[in-house]
Amino acid sequence: MDPSLNVLGEELKPCSTSPVTGFFRDGCCNTGGADTGKHTVCCIMTKEFLAFSKYIGNDLSTPRPEFHFAGLKEGDRWCLCVDRWLQAHQEDAAPHIVLESTHKNTLETVPLGVLKRKAVDIN
């Protein structure tokens, strides 16, 4: 696993434990060599994004009990693949993100300035 640092260079904070998210299902947007999708962006789901994701073939809102997945709803936090977030951003459908819970590896794909424009302060 890569070092658990966020895009601000600080300790990576949990994204969500309900539902449990992250490639490693540890509640954080940690990543490493096995995470080929780079699930590094901590997002707050919106109806718009969930509809967009379903439209492009990644249905995150439908429950999948066989995978112990209840489906996401508006307001849920989820570690999203950086390329999917960027695609949604380019289509004006990207959900807001939590910087302190977004892994620093995200910066290899998306500049910090772009992330900050979609960031929310949840504290």
Strands side by side in the biggest sheet:
2-1-3
* Structural class assignment: alpha+beta
What fraction of residues sit in β-strands? 5-15%
Work out the oligomeric state of the chains in this entry.
single chain
Helix content: 10-25%
Number of strands: 3
Number of helices: 3
Shape: globular
Separation, N- and C-terminal Cα atoms? 27 Å
Radius of gyration: 13 Å
N to C succession of SSEs:
EHEHEH
- Report mean pLDDT, rounded to a whole number: 93
Major sheet details: 3 strands, antiparallel
Poorly predicted runs are none
Quick recap of the structure?
The protein has 123 residues and is an alpha+beta fold.
Describe the model.
InterPro entries: DUF2237. This is DUF2237 domain-containing protein. The chain has 123 residues and is α+β, with helices and mostly antiparallel strands. The chain is 20% helix and 11% strand. It has helices spanning 47-55, 82-90, 112-117; strands at 39-44, 77-81, 96-97. The chain has a three-stranded antiparallel β-sheet. The N and C termini lie far apart (27 Å). The model has no long low-confidence stretch (mean pLDDT 93).
